[in-house]
Design brief:
The structure is a single chain. This protein is α+β, with helices and mostly antiparallel strands and 292 residues long. Helix content is 28%, strand content 30%. The protein contains 4 helices and 17 strands. It has a 6-stranded mixed β-sheet with strand order 1-9-8-3-4-5, with no helix packed on it. The longest helix has 46 residues. Bound molecules: 2-acetamido-2-deoxy-beta-D-glucopyranose (NAG) (4 copies). InterPro entries: CD2/SLAM_rcpt (IPR015631), Ig-like_dom (IPR007110), Ig-like_dom_sf (IPR036179), Ig-like_fold (IPR013783). This is Hepatocyte cell adhesion molecule. It is found in: Membrane.
């Protein structure tokens, strides 16, 4: 029955990896992520009593004593070792957390503080422009009036020293036929607008009124997605997160492949042993997968 052990081994492995991979809350977290703040005790002693506080809002988040939850706020849970897990962090979870752990004779065996900052994902901005009578233009980077973001302007692919949501262009600058885009970022996300050309009618026919085509007029190829030197810095953490997520996906894929392989070898083994029909083995395998 080595095939049974194969499966047991696989499941234990998978379970262990998944358990370990519960994400620890970093200092900066994207809204909606699930993560854990670790509780550490002296000599990893098992606590008998645990208290978790959110200092910023002066609330008790979790009280646990002798295996019983005495108090817990919505959206958090206690790990086996006393660590605090958020199902899905929101803006109001921002701030400082403090824990205390005691053993069964009331001695404090661990205490610590952790600060987290939750960010909402940056929206994809859009660039619009208005022309004045002299064919100067004012570009606006629309971020849905979010004020918690760092903004950069790009001309073609070059990042500008301009962080206001509006940028003024003179007639002469517009004549260079360049494309304009803006990017917004916070420590956990980064979005860049489409690159648009700016076309203001040359003033020879007099004021044609502010023409502000919000749609990019020509179907310009999405140029300028090469992130400039400045976004590379702010985007690096984001990229790091993406790579972690990708890693998780790769792991799941690997697990699937392993399970399929085990399933096949299981089928073959059984075939040798009893020579039953193929369908029965498939059924057997799927029963292992579901039943375990
Ligand atoms: C257009 O820009 C030029 C150069 O900055 C400026 O002298 C002129 O007053 C501007 N025109 C309008 C209508 O603001
Ligand atoms: C955001 O913009 C909308 C219009 O687009 C406006 O009605 C609203 O008052 C703005 N909110 C803030 C906080 O500025
Ligand atoms: C960017 O602009 C600010 C003020 O607008 C100025 O103090 C700073 O020197 C500029 N930096 C560069 C690299 O041009
Ligand atoms: C910009 O485009 C206009 C018409 O499309 C053209 O006449 C002008 O020479 C171009 N300017 C540059 C700097 O390429």
């Amino acid at each position: 029955m080595s095939c049974q052990y194969n499966f047991l081994f696989l499941f234990l492995c998978g379970f262990a990896v998944l358990t370990v991979s519960i994400k620890t809350c970093g200092k900066e977290i994207l809204e909606g992520t699930s993560c854990t703040i670790k509780l550490i005790t002296k000599n990893s002693e098992k606590p008998d009593e645990i208290e978790w506080y959110h200092l910023t809002s002066d609330t008790i988040v979790l009280l646990w004593k002798r295996g019983k939850i005495k108090k817990v706020v919505e959206g958090v849970s206690k790990e086996e070792d006393g660590s605090l897990t958020f199902k899905s962090v929101s803006l109001k979870d921002t701030g400082k957390y403090k824990y205390k752990a005691f053993n069964n004779d009331g001695t404090e065996i661990g205490t610590g503080e952790e600060e987290i900052q939750v960010y909402v994902k940056a929206p994809k901005p859009t660039v619009t422009f208005d022309c004045d009578a002299d064919s100067n233009a004012t570009l606006t980077c629309d971020t849905g009036n979010r004020t918690d973001l760092t903004l950069f302007w790009y001309i073609d692919t070059i990042v500008q020293n301009e962080t206001n949501p509006q940028m003024f262009l003179t007639f002469t600058q517009i004549q260079k036929n360049q494309t304009y885009s803006c990017s917004v970022s916070n420590p956990v996300s980064n979005e860049q607008s489409e690159s648009i050309p700016v076309l203001c009618h040359t003033g020879h026919t007099g004021p044609t009124g502010p023409t502000g085509p919000t749609e990019p007029t020509g179907p310009t190829e999405p140029t300028g997605y090469d992130p400039g030197p400045d976004t590379e810095v702010s985007g690096s953490k984001f990229n790091f997160m993406v790579s972690i997520l990708a890693g998780g996906g790769a792991f799941l894929l690997l697990l699937c492949v392993l399970i399929i392989c085990a399933c096949r070898s299981c089928r073959q083994q059984k075939k040798h042993q009893q020579g039953e029909s193929r369908l029965d083995h498939l059924k057997l395998c799927s029963e292992y997968l579901h039943g375990q």
